[in-house]
Design goal:
The protein is α+β, with helices and mostly antiparallel strands. It is built from four helices and 14 strands. The strands form three sheets. Strands 8-7-14-6-13-10-11 form a seven-stranded mixed beta sheet. Strands 1-2-3-5-4 form a five-stranded antiparallel beta sheet, covered by helices on one side. Strands 9-12 form a two-stranded antiparallel sheet. Strand 10 and strand 11 form a beta hairpin. The radius of gyration is 19 Å and the shape is elongated.
Protein backbone atom coordinates (compact mmCIF):
# COMPACT_ATOMS: atom_id res chain seq x y z
CA UNK A 1 0.00 0.00 0.00
CA UNK A 2 1.26 3.50 -0.89
CA UNK A 3 0.66 6.37 1.54
CA UNK A 4 0.60 9.93 0.24
CA UNK A 5 1.79 12.99 2.11
CA UNK A 6 1.60 15.92 -0.28
CA UNK A 7 4.09 15.12 -3.06
CA UNK A 8 5.71 12.33 -1.01
CA UNK A 9 4.87 8.68 -1.72
CA UNK A 10 5.77 6.15 0.97
CA UNK A 11 6.70 2.61 -0.04
CA UNK A 12 7.73 -0.36 2.13
CA UNK A 13 11.35 -1.48 1.74
CA UNK A 14 11.53 -4.80 3.53
CA UNK A 15 10.86 -5.05 7.25
CA UNK A 16 13.16 -2.25 8.42
CA UNK A 17 12.91 0.65 5.99
CA UNK A 18 10.56 3.05 4.25
CA UNK A 19 11.29 4.54 0.83
CA UNK A 20 9.94 8.04 0.23
CA UNK A 21 9.49 8.91 -3.44
CA UNK A 22 9.39 12.58 -4.46
CA UNK A 23 9.06 14.57 -7.65
CA UNK A 24 12.62 15.89 -7.89
CA UNK A 25 15.97 16.57 -6.30
CA UNK A 26 14.94 19.86 -4.67
CA UNK A 27 12.07 18.11 -2.90
CA UNK A 28 14.43 15.31 -1.81
CA UNK A 29 16.91 17.73 -0.28
CA UNK A 30 14.19 19.73 1.48
CA UNK A 31 12.60 16.63 2.99
CA UNK A 32 15.93 15.02 3.91
CA UNK A 33 16.96 18.18 5.74
CA UNK A 34 13.64 18.43 7.55
CA UNK A 35 13.76 14.74 8.56
CA UNK A 36 17.33 15.13 9.83
CA UNK A 37 16.35 18.18 11.90
CA UNK A 38 13.45 16.27 13.52
CA UNK A 39 15.07 12.82 13.63
CA UNK A 40 13.70 10.69 16.50
CA UNK A 41 15.46 7.82 18.29
CA UNK A 42 15.12 4.66 16.24
CA UNK A 43 15.94 6.17 12.85
CA UNK A 44 19.18 4.41 11.90
CA UNK A 45 19.94 6.23 8.67
CA UNK A 46 18.56 8.69 6.11
CA UNK A 47 19.80 8.06 2.58
CA UNK A 48 18.81 10.67 -0.04
CA UNK A 49 19.10 9.96 -3.75
CA UNK A 50 17.99 11.79 -6.89
CA UNK A 51 14.27 11.16 -6.37
CA UNK A 52 14.00 9.25 -3.09
CA UNK A 53 14.86 9.25 0.60
CA UNK A 54 15.43 5.87 2.25
CA UNK A 55 14.61 5.82 5.98
CA UNK A 56 16.13 2.87 7.85
CA UNK A 57 14.58 1.89 11.19
CA UNK A 58 15.68 0.14 14.40
CA UNK A 59 12.55 -1.87 15.16
CA UNK A 60 13.54 -2.21 18.82
CA UNK A 61 13.06 1.53 19.23
CA UNK A 62 10.58 2.55 16.53
CA UNK A 63 7.87 0.65 14.65
CA UNK A 64 7.36 1.07 10.94
CA UNK A 65 3.92 2.52 11.61
CA UNK A 66 5.45 5.14 13.89
CA UNK A 67 8.14 5.87 11.32
CA UNK A 68 5.57 6.33 8.56
CA UNK A 69 3.51 8.65 10.74
CA UNK A 70 6.62 10.70 11.54
CA UNK A 71 7.62 10.94 7.86
CA UNK A 72 4.11 11.95 6.84
CA UNK A 73 3.99 14.63 9.54
CA UNK A 74 7.33 16.11 8.52
CA UNK A 75 6.44 15.94 4.81
CA UNK A 76 3.18 17.78 5.44
CA UNK A 77 4.81 20.51 7.53
CA UNK A 78 6.58 23.71 6.47
CA UNK A 79 10.17 23.57 5.25
CA UNK A 80 12.59 26.42 4.69
CA UNK A 81 13.96 25.89 1.19
CA UNK A 82 16.37 23.35 -0.25
CA UNK A 83 18.00 21.33 2.46
CA UNK A 84 15.24 21.92 5.01
CA UNK A 85 15.73 23.83 8.24
CA UNK A 86 18.93 21.93 9.01
CA UNK A 87 18.60 22.74 12.70
CA UNK A 88 20.26 19.49 13.78
CA UNK A 89 22.73 19.24 10.93
CA UNK A 90 26.46 19.73 11.35
CA UNK A 91 28.02 22.81 9.72
CA UNK A 92 28.85 22.24 6.08
CA UNK A 93 32.48 21.46 5.32
CA UNK A 94 34.21 23.16 2.39
CA UNK A 95 36.60 21.55 -0.09
CA UNK A 96 38.76 23.03 -2.84
CA UNK A 97 39.59 20.48 -5.53
CA UNK A 98 42.29 21.21 -8.10
CA UNK A 99 41.53 19.83 -11.55
CA UNK A 100 43.44 19.39 -14.78
CA UNK A 101 40.73 20.09 -17.34
CA UNK A 102 42.07 17.53 -19.80
CA UNK A 103 39.11 15.17 -20.11
CA UNK A 104 38.48 13.33 -23.40
CA UNK A 105 34.93 14.70 -23.67
CA UNK A 106 35.68 18.34 -22.84
CA UNK A 107 35.91 19.77 -26.34
CA UNK A 108 32.93 17.90 -27.80
CA UNK A 109 30.73 18.64 -24.80
CA UNK A 110 31.63 22.33 -24.83
CA UNK A 111 30.72 22.52 -28.52
CA UNK A 112 27.42 20.75 -27.87
CA UNK A 113 26.64 23.32 -25.17
CA UNK A 114 27.48 26.19 -27.53
CA UNK A 115 30.72 27.36 -25.95
CA UNK A 116 34.47 26.88 -26.09
CA UNK A 117 36.36 24.51 -23.83
CA UNK A 118 37.74 27.48 -21.93
CA UNK A 119 34.27 28.90 -21.38
CA UNK A 120 33.02 25.57 -20.06
CA UNK A 121 35.94 25.40 -17.62
CA UNK A 122 35.20 28.96 -16.48
CA UNK A 123 31.54 28.11 -15.86
CA UNK A 124 32.44 24.94 -14.00
CA UNK A 125 35.05 26.56 -11.74
CA UNK A 126 32.88 29.62 -11.05
CA UNK A 127 29.95 27.50 -9.85
CA UNK A 128 29.54 26.82 -6.11
CA UNK A 129 28.86 23.10 -5.79
CA UNK A 130 27.19 21.16 -2.99
CA UNK A 131 27.10 17.40 -2.35
CA UNK A 132 23.44 16.48 -2.77
CA UNK A 133 23.94 12.81 -1.94
CA UNK A 134 26.47 10.01 -2.29
CA UNK A 135 26.28 6.62 -3.94
CA UNK A 136 27.21 4.53 -7.02
CA UNK A 137 30.60 3.75 -5.46
CA UNK A 138 32.09 4.48 -2.01
CA UNK A 139 33.20 8.11 -1.93
CA UNK A 140 31.28 9.20 -5.04
CA UNK A 141 29.45 12.47 -4.40
CA UNK A 142 26.70 13.79 -6.65
CA UNK A 143 27.33 17.54 -6.78
CA UNK A 144 24.75 20.16 -7.78
CA UNK A 145 24.94 23.92 -8.22
CA UNK A 146 22.35 26.67 -8.80
CA UNK A 147 24.89 28.25 -11.15
CA UNK A 148 25.06 25.17 -13.39
CA UNK A 149 21.92 25.11 -15.61
CA UNK A 150 23.05 22.43 -18.05
CA UNK A 151 21.45 19.02 -18.54
CA UNK A 152 24.41 16.99 -19.77
CA UNK A 153 23.57 13.73 -21.59
CA UNK A 154 25.34 10.55 -20.59
CA UNK A 155 27.46 8.77 -23.17
CA UNK A 156 25.54 6.51 -25.51
CA UNK A 157 28.04 3.73 -24.82
CA UNK A 158 29.50 3.78 -21.28
CA UNK A 159 33.23 3.30 -20.90
CA UNK A 160 34.30 -0.03 -19.45
CA UNK A 161 37.00 1.63 -17.33
CA UNK A 162 36.98 5.23 -16.12
CA UNK A 163 40.25 6.11 -14.32
CA UNK A 164 40.15 7.09 -10.65
CA UNK A 165 40.05 10.85 -10.21
CA UNK A 166 38.16 11.51 -13.43
CA UNK A 167 35.81 14.49 -13.19
CA UNK A 168 32.55 13.81 -14.97
CA UNK A 169 29.26 15.49 -15.82
CA UNK A 170 25.84 13.91 -16.29
CA UNK A 171 22.37 15.47 -16.11
CA UNK A 172 22.68 18.33 -13.57
CA UNK A 173 25.47 16.60 -11.62
CA UNK A 174 29.25 16.81 -11.36
CA UNK A 175 31.23 14.01 -9.74
CA UNK A 176 34.74 12.68 -9.21
CA UNK A 177 35.23 8.96 -9.73
CA UNK A 178 36.81 7.60 -6.52
CA UNK A 179 38.28 4.52 -8.18
CA UNK A 180 38.45 2.90 -11.60
CA UNK A 181 34.98 1.73 -12.58
CA UNK A 182 32.79 1.55 -15.66
CA UNK A 183 30.90 4.77 -16.25
CA UNK A 184 28.84 6.75 -18.72
CA UNK A 185 29.46 10.31 -17.54
CA UNK A 186 31.15 12.85 -19.81
CA UNK A 187 34.72 13.31 -18.63
CA UNK A 188 36.08 16.86 -18.56
CA UNK A 189 39.10 16.61 -16.28
CA UNK A 190 41.21 14.87 -13.67
CA UNK A 191 41.06 15.82 -9.99
CA UNK A 192 44.30 16.07 -8.04
CA UNK A 193 42.47 15.42 -4.77
CA UNK A 194 41.80 11.84 -3.71
CA UNK A 195 38.13 11.58 -2.77
CA UNK A 196 38.24 8.08 -1.28
CA UNK A 197 40.97 6.40 0.79
CA UNK A 198 39.90 3.09 2.37
CA UNK A 199 42.80 3.27 4.87
CA UNK A 200 41.93 6.74 6.18
CA UNK A 201 40.03 7.33 9.44
CA UNK A 202 37.28 8.90 7.29
CA UNK A 203 37.60 7.11 3.94
CA UNK A 204 35.22 9.36 2.01
CA UNK A 205 36.23 13.00 1.55
CA UNK A 206 32.75 14.18 0.58
CA UNK A 207 29.55 13.92 2.60
CA UNK A 208 26.03 15.17 1.83
CA UNK A 209 25.82 18.90 2.45
CA UNK A 210 29.53 19.56 1.90
CA UNK A 211 30.47 22.55 -0.26
CA UNK A 212 32.91 22.13 -3.13
CA UNK A 213 34.75 24.52 -5.43
CA UNK A 214 36.82 23.36 -8.38
CA UNK A 215 40.01 25.18 -9.38
CA UNK A 216 41.81 24.76 -12.67
CA UNK A 217 45.32 23.43 -12.01
CA UNK A 218 47.82 26.25 -12.34
CA UNK A 219 45.18 28.96 -11.85
Amino acid sequence: MVSRAGPARLLPMGARAVLVELDGLDEVLELAGALQAARPPGVVDLVPAARTVLVQIDLDRLTLAQARAWIEGVAAGPRSGVGGSGGAAAPARSHLIDVRYDGPDLAALAAALGMTSGELVERHTAAPWRVAFTGFAPGFGYLVSPAWPFDVPRLRAPRTAVPAGSLGLAAEFSGVYPRQTPGGWQLIGTAATRVFDPLAAEPALLAPGDLVRFRAAGA
